[in-house]
Amino acid sequence: MAKRVLLAAPRGYCAGVDRAVITVEKSLELYGAPIYVRKEIVHNKHVVSTLEARGVIFVNETDEVPEGATVVFSAHGVSPAVHEQAAARNLRTIDATCPLVTKVHNEVKRFADDETEILLIGHVGHEEVEGTAGEAPGKVRIVDGLEQARTIIPTPGKKLVWLTQTTLSVDETMQSVAILKERFPEIANPPSDDICYATQNRQEAIKQIAPQADLVLVVGSTNSSNSVRLVEVAKEYGTKNAYLIDFAEEADEDWLNGVETIGVTSGASVPEILVRDLLAWLSERGFGDVEEVTATQETLLFALPPELRKELKSAGK
């Protein structure tokens, strides 16, 4: 039996995650520990525990940050109310919101100003959705899944537009959109695609691999929306089994029984070292033949937050 691994490319860190993690590391360099971060900087256990070991304190809300301290806002974005709370506590704020999330925030503000009701396709309770909806309280309705797309009742007489959380499954989102358009033919489209390029690229790569794989292993955390979607997409596109694991040691040898081809990928908030650990674990069990399957090349980079760039420049770093 010829055992092999099909390794997805692109995988792992996207430009927004890379920027957010570097933002926290540079903040530590500039200001020293402790640095406070509201929520997890990105949804990955390894990243969070590594930063905690270096003196980062993760909090749920800004009122847990001592007055006058430095707080970094996570890649998922925050509402204007959170910025106001931070200002009231005299906190030095560094906003590591992914620029692609900021784009959706700006769309919400623009449509809300135009008295348009916004149907935001996304997961209730996800930090990104809370921050985005918070840009226009009372004017954003969350559409969480196909059933809600079928049943949501917008305000009569209002203009409508649909927008989305950036880390959703492309296929499922378009199903929700199709339902909304059938029910409300006049609903407007977003000015440009809201689903993040990296989310789409990672899903495209696993779509190519899944039909050939007996098993797909996705490295990522359970609270990482884009990682969870990769497992769903793998199953939808033909793999027999797919599992989400944070670390190689969470993989179960029983999963390998009768398996010839394993697909491996990682979510957009996962450092490459965790993928390398998994490949080493698989190699020890006879899966040393690794073939990379490339869906597209990624070259996008985001500049660090302007408030941090300015401070780094004046500090000569």
Q: Your description of this structure?
A:
With 317 residues, the chain is of the alpha/beta class. It is 39% helix and 19% strand. The protein has 11 helices and 12 strands. It has helices at residues 15-31, 45-53, 80-88, 99-113, 127-133, 146-151, 170-183, 197-209, 225-236, 272-284, 306-314, and strands at 4-9, 35-38, 56-59, 70-73, 92-95, 116-121, 140-143, 159-164, 215-219, 241-245, 261-266, 290-294. Strands 10-9-11-1-12 form a 5-stranded parallel sheet, with helices on both faces. Helix 4 packs parallel to helix 5 and helix 8 runs parallel beside helix 9. The radius of gyration is 21 Å and the shape is flat. The N and C termini lie far apart (54 Å).
Structure characteristics:
four-stranded parallel sheet; alpha/beta; 317 residues; five-stranded parallel sheet
Beta content: 15-25%
Gross morphology is flat
Q: Helix and strand succession?
A: EHEHEEHEHEHEHEHHEHEEHEH
Structural class: alpha/beta
What's the tally of helices? 11
Number of E strands: 12
Range of helix content: 25-40%
Please give the alpha-carbon distance between the first and last residues.
Answer: 54 Å
As laid out across the biggest beta sheet, the strand order is 10-9-11-1-12
> How many whole angstroms does the radius of gyration measure?
21 Å
* Unreliable sequence segments: none
* Biggest beta-sheet profile: 5 strands, parallel
- Determine the mean pLDDT: 97
